[in-house]
Amino acid sequence: MEDMIKLTATESARCDKYIAENVEGVSRSYLKKLFDEGKILVNGSAKSASYKLKAGDEIEFNLPEAEEIDALPEDIALDIVYEDEHLLVINKPRGMVVHPAPGNSSGTLVNAVLFHSRGNLSGINGKMRPGIVHRIDKDTTGLLVVAKTNDAHQFLSDQLGDRSLSREYYALVHGNIKEDSGTIDAPIARSENDRKKMTVTYKNSREAVTDFFVQERFGNYTLVRCKLRTGRTHQIRVHMKHIGRPIVGDKTYGVKKEEFNLIGQLLHAGKIGFIHPATKEKVYYTAPLPEDFEKVLALLRNRSGK
Which of 57, 137, 151, 250 is catalytic? Predict the structure, then answer.
């Protein structure tokens, strides 16, 4: 089912901005899709997002209803860093998949959050990904935000789109990075040789930018803090491999023989910041490194005499 939205412009303004400010539950990213598909009509004709409205113009478009949630709740413990009636910030453990997928329908963060919130989650992303604004990989640990309401979801998604939702990661990588900081600006696309992998390429790719800052050096290893400017699949893992410094424990993009007995990459989403959808204030949340990550660092510090 779709809801027909009808508006009469009361002032001169950009069409996309006017709709976003006057219709609840619609994001700029979804509006862009509608504009690109010619589905937003002004006085009966398709217009662009930048079309300059005049007072009295009639605007029409369809807004689909959120899909019903179809994943099943499961009583799985969660490390909840923050919660209110609009959202949750969760510290995801290693080994937990974020949402159900074919062949992996249970034991996910979505199943756990559905149980915890009694089903009160945004349904915008469909039946298998309720509340999920962004994801982190199964064997990456750390913070992600989950939306309880559609309005919160749209507001947070818009921040992902305009890059005002900030994410910082800690990674232990192979080799000695000599620079104290740097930027990796290298586009990413799915590998043509292995569709399960991503790769740096200029063919059918999307912009990908990662800033990194060296925190500690351990001879053959370096601890870095990474800030995402974009959010591509496996971005930090692919970028670190690209500069010859793959992440320790990464079974997809890392080295064949590892010194440490790890079940996944030492990559941790340690800090997240965003404008709260209700208070409109910038908030930040942090999560400490997981135990296995700290143990490896302690071993390297002891070996280095730190």
Answer: 137
Residue 22 parent element (H or E): helix 15-22
Count CB neighbours of 152 within 10 A.
Answer: 23
Q: How far is it, in rounded angstroms, from Cα 109 to Cα 104? A: 12
Going from N- to C-terminal start, the domains of the chain cover: 2-64, 80-162, 167-270+291-304
| Assigned architecture for domain 80-162 | 2-Layer Sandwich (3.30)
Which CATH number applies to 167-270+291-304?
A: 3.30.2350.10
Q: Which fold has domain 2-64?
A: 3.10.290
Mean pLDDT per 10-residue segment, the chain (306 residues): 76 87 70 87 92 93 63 92 97 92 79 90 77 92 96 92 93 97 96 86 92 97 96 95 98 93 95 97 98 97 86
- Whether 194 is catalytic is no
The answer to whether 23 and 63 have CB atoms below 8 angstroms apart is: yes
Kind plus residue range of the DSSP H or E element containing 223 = strand 221-228
Answer whether 0.70 is exceeded by the pTM.
yes
- DSSP letter at 114? H
Distance separating alpha carbons of residues 88 and 245, to the nearest angstrom = 33
DSSP code, position 53: E
